Amino acid sequence: MTSLKTQFIARLPAAIAADGSAGYELAARAHPEPPHPYRSPFSRDAARILHARSFRRLAGKTQVFMRLPAEGLSDHFRSRLTHTLEVTQIARTAAGALGLNVELAEALALAHDIGHPPFGHAGEKALDGALHDHGLSFDHNLHALRIVTWFEERYPAFRGLNLTLGVREGIIKHSRDYSVVKHPELASYFLASFPPLEAQLIDLADEIAYLTADLDDGLDSGIVALEQVRAASPLFCGIHDAVTAEYRAAAPKVAVYETLRRMLNELVTGLIEETAARVIVRGATTLQDIRHAPRRLVGVSPDMDAARKALKAFLYANFYNSSGQEQVHAYAEKVIGDIFKNLMADPKQLPEDHQAQIHSEGLARTVADYIAGMTDSYIVQLWERTCTA
Prior knowledge:
The chain is mostly helical and about 400 residues long.
């Protein structure tokens, strides 16, 4: 790894030109601002995201694990906010090891989930379904862009956070590519090319974070059993065997924590090594080389990818879509569906600032925007007050 890292750092700083010298103006803002005396543009972006109301609301939004209100919640399970902080730590570590722009990676990691609605992926699915009846859809990446460019109001000179082009592009493209034919409104974000490596890192940092953390929460909750995980994941099983052999007196739960820690380290190391190797083999030395490569260059080795897929398939079958979660998913769908219909029938219930955007955005999109900003507890309280009386 050391030789790859050394070669990579020697090649890549020119590729990530924060001052825009690569011709893409990554540090440009829609509303020009004077440079800060001691902070880089991407460092300022990270701070703006960190202080935004939409970021704070992540503390009240489900990551994956949710229960019905009568069952109560454990303070130990991840929220969307704690997940975001874990992704940020991984992204900073990987970016630093690869010689990339750590501050850009940090800003992108902090922003990557601010577009999610309440109730985790179950809530996003329910909101998307409600919009489909009106010929629309919900995409949390595109909603995040709208948050940072319009909904956040903190500055007298402009709407939104006025983030750099590099961060706005990464918010949209970190996890998928968009067609300019289907999304002409995104034409200024280089849809015909891949994003910088910092943005590409976020997708796998996100997945590594949630796979290991969700396994932790799944085991802690009792929804999945240790022997199930050992049978389904050779990576986990091999590390767990090594841990229990080394620490024979360790409590079973502590042995699992050590296993997850080592597994996280192996996945991140694999990400760093494989990405370095791909860039070197490609001979990529500029941002344009990264953008116009035949595929995204951030990735993991085939063996590690197989381990990742096995773990992901296990969690989907035994945790995310487990029989015990069906009821809470149905609950999330009902709450969001009822609130959506109620607000569509009586838009005067919307806050005044949302009512003001109906003319330009349409009622269905405006209602979805309002719902997407809610925390789990707020939408439940609203539902109980307006839909169950």
